[in-house]
Amino acid sequence: MGFDFDLPYDRRGTGAVKWDELPDGGLPMWIADMDFPTAPAVSKAIEERASHHVYGYTDINDEWRAAYAGWWEKRHGFSMDPEKLIFSTGVIPTISSSVRRLTSPGEKVLILTPVYNIFYNSIINNGRFVLECPLAYDGEGYSIDWDDLEKGLFDPQTSMMLLCNPANPVGKIWDIETLARIGELCSAYGVVVVSDEIHCDITAPGKGYVPFASASPVCAGISVTCVAPTKCFNIAGIGTSAAYAEDPVLRHKVWRQLNTDECGEPNVFAVPAAVAAFTEGGEWLDSMREYVFKNRALVSDYIAAELPCLKAVKGDATYLVWIDCSDVCGRKGIDSAALCDHIMETTGLRLSDGVQYGKGGEMFLRMNVACPSSYVRDGLERLKKAINTL
Q1: 73-101 pLDDT, tens digit each
Q2: CATH code matching the domain that covers 44-280, chosen among 1.20.1250.20, 3.40.50.360, 3.40.640.10, 3.60.15.10
Q3: Rounded to the nearest 5 degrees, what angle is found at the Cα of 78, between the Cα atoms of 164 and 194?
Q4: Which of 160, 243, 258, 295 is the most buried if burial means most Cβ atoms within 10 Å?
């Protein structure tokens, strides 16, 4: 089956955060959702459920459990016990609930920065302290500063590590050796790991990702994994995800807190949408990945040829291109937040500034390329205009 990702899809006037906050003529390439309609199988499942016309209380079922377990077994080589899956309305609700239940007020939660900005909200809003452990950047890619990580985990106030696997915004896929080493260190210092794996299915064609819990028995025993179809199938507005924990104590605590926070019950579309995505959406997903990574290549090639003062950092995961602006920011004496404002004010192109992603992001921009390639070309021309008028 062919899928037309080139077709523009008008989202204005639908309450879409990405589009409706911008003035006419603006081009949003910031918030991480796609401008593609979801997989046809998902739309069909939602439409069929909507046609029933009774939208009462809903529960998860064995079909939902089997869909998750089957997808992770087939696509990622990880055998989940379906009975150990917990429904949640979203990955961030699961993270926030886990912070509340698995740590105590005043303790520290370690994150590898730059990282998804909402991690900070989940930590700070719950009265815990953020412990930033900046990734090492060599001008080409990212790696973990192991000495700094161990120092942070050694702190007796550090009780949790939030891991972004694969990493947003830097697009890094963590290999099994790296994940296993993180697990060994966290286990040694009594630190639980909550792994956000929402971007796991958006990897370069031919590239896989490693679930943290699959890296070793140690990793499985100390972790809570957060997964969902929402990012990769563009259904974030549905509110559907799952948490997985092998350890029965961790699992019970997360389940209990999610229900205390009223995040543990699905809406009427949450189950059928997830089941359809994970049982019938594979062909669409693979086509989308190919398209997105052609867009990523388009950005890299354009920047190399037309904007050599910038650099598109190579990434094998996510539809978010991480752009190194350190040369421009350094010469102009500004950070990426100021650069982002200039780009928006002069061209209407909205990108995400790297400042919000913590230490190491101060001179980077994030560009969402999960959109028709015509939008990408337009965005690149606007970016060039903005840089040339800075």
Answers
A1: 999 999 999 999 999 999 999 999 999 99
A2: 3.40.640.10
A3: 30
A4: 243
